[in-house]
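Ticket #4471: structure output looks truncated?

Reporter: J.K.
Steps to reproduce: submitted the chain below (110 residues) through the standard prediction queue, then opened the result file.
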Amino acid sequence: MTADGSGKTRGGDIECYDSSVLDYISTSIDSVTTQKQITMYPNQKPWMNRDVRLLLKARNIAFRSGDAQTYSTARANLKRGIKKAKHGYNLKGIQVISNYKPINPSPPLN
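Returned output as attached by the reporter:
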Protein backbone atom coordinates (compact mmCIF):
# COMPACT_ATOMS: atom_id res chain seq x y z
CA MET A 1 0.00 0.00 0.00
CA THR A 2 1.12 3.47 -0.70
CA ALA A 3 0.58 6.52 1.46
CA ASP A 4 -2.65 7.40 -0.32
CA GLY A 5 -4.03 3.87 0.22
CA SER A 6 -4.68 3.22 -3.45
CA GLY A 7 -2.44 0.18 -3.73
CA LYS A 8 -0.73 1.68 -6.77
CA THR A 9 3.02 1.99 -7.08
CA ARG A 10 4.98 4.02 -9.60
CA GLY A 11 5.34 1.09 -11.98
CA GLY A 12 1.80 -0.31 -11.71
CA ASP A 13 -0.45 -1.99 -9.20
CA ILE A 14 0.78 -4.12 -6.32
CA GLU A 15 -0.74 -7.37 -7.66
CA CYS A 16 1.41 -7.21 -10.80
CA TYR A 17 4.53 -6.61 -8.73
CA ASP A 18 3.56 -9.41 -6.34
CA SER A 19 3.04 -11.94 -9.13
CA SER A 20 6.34 -11.04 -10.81
CA VAL A 21 8.25 -11.50 -7.54
CA LEU A 22 6.54 -14.84 -6.87
CA ASP A 23 7.31 -16.01 -10.41
CA TYR A 24 10.97 -15.07 -9.97
CA ILE A 25 11.17 -16.93 -6.65
CA SER A 26 9.52 -20.06 -8.07
CA THR A 27 11.83 -20.15 -11.12
CA SER A 28 14.85 -19.67 -8.85
CA ILE A 29 13.72 -22.54 -6.63
CA ASP A 30 13.09 -24.78 -9.65
CA SER A 31 16.54 -24.10 -11.07
CA VAL A 32 18.37 -24.81 -7.79
CA THR A 33 16.46 -27.71 -6.24
CA THR A 34 15.35 -31.05 -7.57
CA GLN A 35 11.81 -32.27 -7.25
CA LYS A 36 11.29 -35.62 -5.58
CA GLN A 37 8.02 -37.49 -5.33
CA ILE A 38 7.38 -39.30 -2.06
CA THR A 39 4.47 -41.71 -1.81
CA MET A 40 2.67 -41.63 1.52
CA TYR A 41 -0.07 -44.07 2.36
CA PRO A 42 -2.86 -43.25 4.82
CA ASN A 43 -2.21 -46.38 6.86
CA GLN A 44 1.58 -45.93 6.96
CA LYS A 45 2.96 -45.58 10.47
CA PRO A 46 4.89 -42.37 11.17
CA TRP A 47 7.98 -44.31 12.30
CA MET A 48 8.21 -46.26 9.02
CA ASN A 49 11.42 -45.01 7.46
CA ARG A 50 13.62 -46.14 4.61
CA ASP A 51 15.58 -48.61 6.76
CA VAL A 52 12.44 -50.39 7.97
CA ARG A 53 11.07 -50.61 4.42
CA LEU A 54 14.35 -52.15 3.22
CA LEU A 55 14.32 -54.68 6.07
CA LEU A 56 10.69 -55.51 5.28
CA LYS A 57 11.60 -56.06 1.64
CA ALA A 58 14.51 -58.31 2.68
CA ARG A 59 12.20 -60.35 4.92
CA ASN A 60 9.69 -60.81 2.09
CA ILE A 61 12.45 -61.92 -0.29
CA ALA A 62 13.74 -64.38 2.32
CA PHE A 63 10.22 -65.77 2.78
CA ARG A 64 9.78 -66.30 -0.95
CA SER A 65 13.16 -68.01 -1.22
CA GLY A 66 12.02 -70.79 1.13
CA ASP A 67 15.23 -70.80 3.20
CA ALA A 68 14.15 -71.03 6.85
CA GLN A 69 17.45 -69.80 8.31
CA THR A 70 17.56 -66.69 6.10
CA TYR A 71 13.91 -65.97 6.84
CA SER A 72 14.49 -66.28 10.59
CA THR A 73 17.46 -63.90 10.44
CA ALA A 74 15.51 -61.42 8.30
CA ARG A 75 12.59 -61.48 10.75
CA ALA A 76 14.92 -60.80 13.68
CA ASN A 77 16.58 -57.94 11.80
CA LEU A 78 13.18 -56.47 10.94
CA LYS A 79 12.08 -56.65 14.57
CA ARG A 80 15.28 -54.86 15.68
CA GLY A 81 14.87 -52.27 12.95
CA ILE A 82 11.27 -51.53 13.95
CA LYS A 83 12.29 -51.11 17.60
CA LYS A 84 15.09 -48.75 16.60
CA ALA A 85 12.81 -46.71 14.33
CA LYS A 86 10.10 -46.43 17.00
CA HIS A 87 12.67 -45.37 19.59
CA GLY A 88 14.06 -42.71 17.26
CA TYR A 89 10.57 -41.43 16.42
CA ASN A 90 9.56 -41.24 20.09
CA LEU A 91 12.83 -39.55 21.04
CA LYS A 92 12.34 -36.97 18.30
CA GLY A 93 8.81 -36.28 19.58
CA ILE A 94 10.04 -35.82 23.15
CA GLN A 95 12.74 -33.43 21.92
CA VAL A 96 10.13 -31.34 20.11
CA ILE A 97 7.84 -31.21 23.16
CA SER A 98 10.64 -30.33 25.59
CA ASN A 99 12.29 -27.85 23.17
CA TYR A 100 15.54 -29.82 23.42
CA LYS A 101 18.50 -28.30 21.63
CA PRO A 102 21.70 -30.39 21.39
CA ILE A 103 24.82 -28.70 22.70
CA ASN A 104 27.37 -28.06 19.99
CA PRO A 105 30.84 -28.58 21.45
CA SER A 106 33.28 -25.80 20.73
CA PRO A 107 36.23 -26.73 18.53
CA PRO A 108 39.46 -27.50 20.40
CA LEU A 109 41.93 -24.66 20.69
CA ASN A 110 45.35 -25.28 19.18
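Triage note (M.O.): checked the attachment and the full C-alpha coordinate line is present. The chain has a mean pLDDT of 85.
Status: closed, working as intended.
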